[in-house]
Every structure is written in C-alpha cells, then in structure tokens.
Amino acid sequence: MDPPILPSFSLPPQALPNAPALPRPNLVAPKAELPSFKPMFVPAHALRGPTGNEEEEEDNEPAAAEVQRVNVPFTDITVPLPQEEIMVTAATTAMISVAATLTATSLFKQCVKVFKPLFMQLIKRIQKKFTKDGTKDRGKEEGTTGETEG
Questions:
Q1: Which residues contact residue 72 at a Cβ distance below 8 angstroms, ignoring those fewer than 6 apart?
Q2: What is the pLDDT of residue 140?
C-alpha cells in the first residue's frame, strides 16, 4: 500500500522592497568628573566596638547549632536537619492546618446537604406566592409553555 499523497500548492515568489536608508545616529557618551578621596588608614589597635556591648562579650558559651548535618550512607551527600524544636513546630503546624482543612470541607458539605433542600423549598413557596397574587410567571406570560402551536 502506498502512503497517501497530500495535496500541495505553490505560492508565487514574494518581492520585498529594500529597506529605507536611515542616517546613522551620533551618540555622544556622557562625561563626568569622578570624585576621588584620600584613603584613611586607621591602625587596628585604635579600633574599638560600640559602647553597651559588654554583655555580649561576657557570654562566651557556644551557641547550639541550628542545623545538623547527616551523611547519607553509600553516597557523598550531606543532608541538613533542623533542630528538634523546629521540626516539632513545623510538623504540628502542618498537621493542624491539614486537620482544619479537612474538617472545614466536610462541615461545608454537610451544610450544603442540609440547607439546599431548605432553600429550594423556600424558593418554591415564594414562586407560588407570586403566582397566586395575580402576577404571572414569565414563561406563561410570554406563551412559552413548551407546546408547539399548529
């Protein structure tokens, strides 16, 4: 079986006009006088910290590392693990947010199941009340009852 032959057509060659000759723009680079400062040298023994930091100097206790490193066996990969307090806080927050979302979703579905029939019954009663008072329904008013005249 031969492959299908698709129809093809040829377009006439397109004649494009030449680009217009534009004058070359003359751009002048801006010039400015750069400020120059005389370097100031201060010996290291003359430097001192700001006043009021004496408390920080007294606390020479090493701070607890916030991130621990764990080597993955059989690889050269090191995985950072945060402190236990941070992990517990993050896991608790995630668990509470998921539980709240699932609870709110099921509560919303139950409310829809309960309130939908009530709203539908209320709408039907309001429609019946308006049709009893002498105002006609739009469908009956325009003669669109669904029957064909003939």
A1: 78, 79
A2: 53
65: CB partners within 8 A, 6+ apart: 83
The H or E element that residue 106 is part of is: helix 84-132
* Global pTM value: 0.37
Alpha-carbon distance of 91 to 11, in angstroms, equals: 67
Structure tokens given for 40 = 């100031």
The residue ranges of DSSP E strands in 38-136, in sequence order, are 67-71, 78-82
**CA 7, CA 4: separation in Å to the nearest integer?**
10
pLDDT in tens, 22-59: 999 888 888 988 888 888 888 888 888 777 655 555 55
d(CA 48, CA 29) in angstroms, rounded, equals 46
Six-digit token string for 9? 């057509």
> ∠ CA 84-88-91 to the nearest 5 degrees?
135
Please give the DSSP secondary-structure letter assigned to residue 145. S
118 close to 112: Cβ distance less than 8 angstroms:
no
